[in-house]
Design a protein that fits this description.
The protein has about 450 residues and is α/β, with parallel strands linked by helices. It has 18 helices and 16 strands. The chain has a 5-stranded antiparallel sheet. A 5-stranded parallel sheet has the order 9-10-13-8-14. A two-stranded antiparallel ribbon has the order 6-7. It is elongated and about 100 Å long.
Length: about 450
């Protein structure tokens, strides 16, 4: 016990320990102050921590420090050994403005039996201005034929691409619009022995059925009005290489039979032709729909589905790759910085939170478009919330609305599942506002969501 402990205890009882901690955190305006309990769960998170690390209190309170990427290397995540004190150690963390060089100080606490009961930690930037952020270059980041990621699921997809590219297996890529399906198809081609041969691509949903048949299989002169000369289709032009069929679920049934023949017999007959043409083409297909559902609805041939999905490859949506958002954000900022009309070196914390909280229904392609918008309408070295498209400000306004009254109790399981599903849809998959709209805590919402398999 220190000599001033008795006086301090008396004073803390008078003032209130919580008020003292809040006052200390306010004085550490440029730094982060946070506390964990004996299980390393965050129990206090200062305003400075929100600004420095770009994470709100509601996102971190109750979570273990090990589960929060910026804190995974901090002292408290290691449950400091008895009596150890960290003072002034240098480290680099991902913050609200990119990678930030900070110093850390940490103090563990133990009960009378010597058990670890928690710790306080302070982080402060090495300078008043954060280091100009650059996209992370650590080993955790993978750049594979333009696929930039730190996400384990995407890294696994890259490993599958490398392996399957060495074979002749037909690949079916499944993913939402904007997840990079064509980029994956090009990577498969580039990694294969066909890399020096042609790569052709077509969106099956963008061309009418009549034109699509001619585009895929070609036509002979006089096959229809306007066919003034022979036309080599994509299969013929891709001979020896790879043909990418995007949105293959939209392929009309009559063309599905013709595609099946090419996959089985390696030949086809052009529109209006009378002889088969032999081709050596690898097919890589993609869709955002479930082909099994399309088969059940009678819109897709079952035999063709099995031919196409020899190797199914699933691409996660950007909202499921949260750690990739800031990585891709800075990658696109750097790309625009090179063009010269505006240079961004920092992202305002409010803008960063809006970008990280957004559901990204358009995935990576939408992120690229958002950055193009920001560089077109904004000016200056700081990217602010006002530089983002209107939906980002509308999202934050919606999440700030007071929660609606909790629906009547004693709901059936199906009714509760429907409410949770509707809330997730309304708030673009974001947990925090969806939980608030139903009057639930984040933890309760997560538990019920898991319970209903949503």
């Amino acid at each position: 016990m220190t000599e001033h402990s008795a006086f301090l205890k008396s004073w803390l009882l008078q003032v209130g320990a919580d008020q003292v901690v809040e006052a200390l955190s306010a004085m550490l305006d440029c730094g982060a102050l946070f506390a964990v309990d004996g299980e390393c769960r965050i129990v206090f998170w200062s305003k400075g921590a929100e600004r420095l690390l770009g994470l709100s209190r509601s996102e971190v309170l109750g979570r273990t420090s090990r589960s929060i990427p910026p804190l995974s290397h901090c002292a408290v995540s290691k449950q400091l050994s008895a009596g150890e004190v960290i003072q002034g150690d240098a480290m680099e963390l991902p913050g609200s403005v990119g990678m930030v060089k900070v110093r850390q100080a940490a103090r563990p606490f133990f009960d009378e039996q010597g058990r670890f009961v928690g710790a306080l930690e302070v982080l402060w930037p090495e300078s008043a201005v954060a280091v100009p952020p650059r996209p992370p270059t650590e080993d955790a980041t993978e750049d594979f034929h333009g696929i930039l990621t730190r996400d384990p699921a995407m890294k696994q997809a890259c490993r599958v691409i490398r392996n399957v590219a060495q074979t002749e297996a037909t690949v079916l890529i499944r993913g939402e619009s904007g997840t990079g399906k064509e980029l994956v198809a090009r990577a498969i081609h580039a990694e294969s022995h066909r890399a020096r041969k042609p790569f052709q691509a077509v969106n099956c949903a963008a061309i009418s059925a009549n034109l699509l048949e001619s585009e895929l299989f070609g036509h002979v002169r006089g096959a229809f009005t306007g066919a003034l000369r022979d036309h080599a289709g994509l299969f013929q032009r891709a001979d020896g290489g790879t043909l990418f069929l995007d949105e293959v679920a939209e392929l009309p049934l009559e063309l599905q039979a013709k595609l099946l023949r090419v996959l089985q017999e390696r030949d086809f007959v052009p529109v209006g032709g009378d002889r088969a043409i032999k081709v050596d083409v690898r097919i890589v297909a993609a869709t955002h729909r479930s082909l099994r559902d399309q088969v059940r609805e009678g819109r897709f041939r079952e035999d063709l589905m099995y031919r196409l999905r020899v190797v199914p490859l699933f691409l996660p949506a950007l909202r499921e790759r949260r750690q990739d958002i800031s990585l891709l954000l800075w990658h696109n900022i750097d790309r625009h910085n090179v063009q010269g009309h505006r240079r961004v070196v920092r992202v305002d914390p409010d803008a960063m939170r809006a970008l990280l909280d957004y559901a990204w229904p358009g995935n990576v392609r939408e992120l690229q478009n958002v950055m193009e918008y920001a560089f077109a309408v904004g000016r200056g070295e700081v990217l602010r919330l006002e530089d983002l498209p209107p939906e980002f400000r509308e999202e934050r306004a919606a999440s700030a609305r007071p929660p609606s009254n909790l629906p009547p109790l004693r709901l059936t399981g199906a009714q509760e599942a429907d409410l949770i599903r509707d809330a997730l849809r309304e708030y673009g998959g974001r947990i925090e506002p969806a939980a608030k709209s139903l009057g639930m805590s984040r933890a309760t919402f997560w538990r019920k969501r898991k319970q209903h398999g949503l």
